[in-house]
Write a structure and sequence with these properties.
alpha+beta, 4 domains, nine-stranded mixed β-sheet, 21 helices, globular
């Protein structure tokens, strides 16, 4: 929230003493911290509203993490998690909701820690067993494989394990490193085979499975996918021992609805959804094909049945993958067919080495050595395949029409497969239609009729994409640098996944306005993940990227044209090339201007301050009567001077700034143009902002939060400048702002006009 339309935004947080009980294992967070799910037991304080008893929270502390069930107390700051800043981007509220959690809380103060009041023996036992297994893996295996083994067997996830498994993610094999039904099934299968070899009957097998499966479920933190797999294994074993028969598909449905009734949020977790969807797809396909009996030949049927299982899982999980991850590998079905059996053997070797370690050390070391060779070879093959094969396909956000189409195609696919002997020509056609539902037709880039500008919410920083209908795309600034290890910067977390959804794999131009970290920090990630046609570096920004990474702008003039398409063009202005000395890096910022019929429609000024603005005006390069201005220096009072506003006369002002930023941005007075206040949209309050134009030249400005849209109809009235008249605490739209609810970026005083 913000105290006024142009005041810095701060997080709405409750602060006070809190008593909680942890409900899961603590995981590493940051360099020396931990986080764990917990439930509120009691809260005190004067700030309202107090956290209710029973409210789920993700708490964060320092030092050694607590065991499950521990009672902790401390003075904390609790806040609601932020929503997604882009369509399809990571949504922290949805992530926590899938774990029955509502807020995030951390100890108040840099050195403050939680006090442990009680720690149950069962929790200590589980935490100790988990740590003991991790230490054994670390002793039996090299560090890389030990981290992967802990992720595979116990669900221990951290920055190192995510980095090691990144190559698998590129080929659609990320599910192998999230503890799921696959892992539970493999371990249960090994137990069943061992029991069969020892002559253990079905009744005794129930007695073996009954304690082992729940124990493993608790060791992994009881994720929804493990609950599904473990529950099915126990039910199947129990029913078989009783001499009764049932169908696995019916059991999967029973478990799903039982879980939904017991804990509705649990089935909203992405891992649980993927597990249930994959199981339903495989079991349904097995029923329709009578056990994947494709041909009379056993040799071909073995291969085709494996491919059928992989394709059934891929098809059933397609909407979840599209909505949650935004990409899929075209090689994923084949990769799963080849890798999953090898991976199953790897899981068995790892589990076997842990079981043998206390009683037969040599045997444990032998199995661990075989697991190490298998894991290292598999990782090398997958990395080589991901590098050489490519084939990553971006998947746009799922909509209700696309979901309904997918459901209809699924029914059609099932009916077609049931018609034995006549389905072969139809199945590929249906699968292609399903791919098109989530394919390029649903993307927002490239735009259809005019350029599109997306100002990303990257916190306290700047990053913008300009895309033209002919596919030409430019990145203007790259956000801040990663602060918590690789892939943790705003470009890697927010922008890159969104671009993958849009099918963008290169930038024709990358503009670094000037050399400050909050604009250039993500440049190395840009150079490493995208092909860049030409770099435009303002000020000292060229130091942020290796000059060998591509072509560089020769900087022979103060004005250059980046791109032309029909009657549109994108210009770049270089204040540093104008006469006079600039003593501040901000005033060396490159300026970009988007024009239609040589009339300016949008200007982006980086961190340019009033001195730089004056230099552009003195050189006659400052455009006049611009519809949209992306404010300089994050809405600071040092930019947007009177001379600039009188010339540019923006209708809408866009500000890129972060919540709780240490600079106090924005700090500008109301942007007054022709006696009226310009409409202000801020990324910290509105999320990412999109500016579009249609074939008639009308301008549309929209934000991700609330889907609000504003229309500027310059073709009808060029002299009108959009503003926001404030009445009470609601900002109402002027007459030419059409569509959507009234604009209300934040609460403002009643006397502000």
């Amino acid at each position: 929230m913000a105290d006024s339309a142009l005041a810095p935004a701060h997080t709405q947080a409750w602060t006070g003493p809190l008593l909680v009980r942890t409900t899961g294992f603590a995981t590493a967070s940051g360099t020396d911290g931990w986080q764990a799910p917990a439930v509120v037991l009691n809260a005190a304080g004067e700030d309202l509203p107090l956290p209710r008893r029973g409210t789920g929270m993700m708490i964060r502390g320092r030092g050694d993490g607590p065991s499950p069930g521990a009672v902790l107390g401390g003075v904390v700051q609790a806040s609601l998690p932020r929503r997604a800043t882009l369509a399809g981007a990571f949504d922290d509220r949805e992530f926590l909701a899938g774990r029955s959690l509502e807020r995030r809380a951390r100890t108040k103060g840099r050195k403050a820690e939680f006090v442990t009041f009680a720690e149950p023996s069962v929790g200590r036992l589980l935490a100790g067993a988990r740590k003991d297994l991790q230490s054994r893996l670390a002793r039996l295996l090299p560090p890389r494989e030990a981290r992967l083994g802990a992720a595979v067997l116990l669900g221990v996830r951290n920055a190192d394990s995510r980095r090691e498994s990144s190559s698998f993610t590129g080929l659609g094999l990320a599910h192998l490193f999230a503890v799921s039904g696959l892992h539970v099934g493999i371990l249960a299968g090994f137990v069943a085979v061992l029991a069969g070899a020892l002559g253990v009957g079905r009744p005794w097998l129930v007695l073996v499975m009954a304690p082992l499966v729940p124990a493993y479920m608790f060791l992994t933190g009881v994720p929804g996918s493990v609950v599904r797999a473990g529950g099915m294994i126990l039910l199947v074993t129990l029913i078989a021992a009783a001499g009764r028969r049932t169908t696995p598909l019916r059991l999967a449905g029973l478990l799903f609805w039982a879980t939904a009734v017991w804990d509705p949020a649990r089935v909203l977790d992405v891992g649980a959804l993927l597990s249930y969807a994959a199981a339903a797809g495989i079991l349904s396909a097995g029923v329709l094909t009578e056990g994947f009996a494709w041909t009379p030949s056993r040799r071909w049927n073995l291969i085709l049945s494996g491919l059928g299982v992989s394709l059934a899982a891929q098809w059933a999980t397609l909407p979840v993958v599209a909505d949650s991850f935004g990409r899929i590998s075209a090689w994923s079905p084949l990769a799963n067919l080849l890798v999953v059996p090898i991976f199953g053997l790897l899981v068995g070797l790892l589990a076997g080495s842990l079981v043998l370690d206390p009683v037969f050390a040599w045997g444990a070391e032998g199995l661990a050595g075989a697991a190490w060779l298998l894991a290292r070879g598999l990782a090398g093959a997958v990395a080589a395949g991901g590098t050489n094969l490519g084939g990553t396909v971006g998947l746009p956000v799922v909509t209700w029409p696309s979901l309904a189409t997918w459901l209809g195609l699924t029914v059609l696919l099932g009916l077609t497969i049931r018609r034995r002997g006549r389905w072969l020509p139809a199945v590929p056609l249906i699968v292609v239609c399903g791919a098109l539902v989530f394919g390029p037709a649903a993307r927002g880039l490239p735009p259809e009729s005019a350029p599109r500008v997306v100002v990303f919410d990257v916190g306290q920083g700047d990053a913008t994409v300009v895309a033209f209908p002919d596919g030409w795309t430019a990145l203007i600034d790259a956000g801040d640098a990663p602060r918590a290890g690789p892939q943790s910067g705003p470009f890697a977390r927010t922008i890159a996944p969104w671009l993958v959804r849009q099918g963008v794999d290169r930038f024709d131009a990358a503009v670094l306005t000037h050399g400050h970290r909050d604009h250039t920090g993500g440049a190395p990630e840009v150079a490493g993940r995208f092909d860049v046609g030409i770099w435009y570096a303002g000020g000292r920004s060229g130091n942020a990227v290796d000059e060998a990474s591509g072509r560089w702008w020769p900087r022979t003039t103060a004005v250059d044209t980046l791109h032309r398409w029909q009657n549109w063009d994108l210009l770049i202005l270089d204040p540093d090339a104008l006469p006079g000395d600039s003593h501040h890096e901000n005033d060396r910022s490159l300026v970009t201007v988007l024009r239609r019929d040589k009339l300016p429609r949008m200007i982006m000024t980086g961190d340019l301050e009033t001195a730089g603005e004056h230099r552009l005006a003195a050189a006659g390069l400052l455009p006049a009567n611009v519809e949209v201005w992306k404010a300089g220096h994050h809405g600071s009072a040092t930019s947007g001077g009177l001379e600039f506003l009188a010339t540019v006369r923006p209708r809408v002002v866009l500000i890129s700034c972060g919540v709780d930023n240490r600079h106090g941005h924005p700090s500008h007075d109301p942007y007054v143009v022709d006696g009226d206040t310009a409409l202000v949209l801020r990324t910290d309050l509105e999320g990412s902002i999109t500016v579009d134009w249609d074939a008639r030249g009308r301008t549309f400005v929209s934000s991700i939060r609330g889907g609000r849209r504003a229309r500027l109809d310059t073709a009808r009235d060029r002299s009108y400048h959009a503003g926001a008249r404030v009445s009470g605490a609601r900002a109402t739209a002027p007459p030419t702002l059409a569509g959507g609810p009234p604009w209300q970026p934040c609460a403002v005083p009643a006397n502000w006009d």
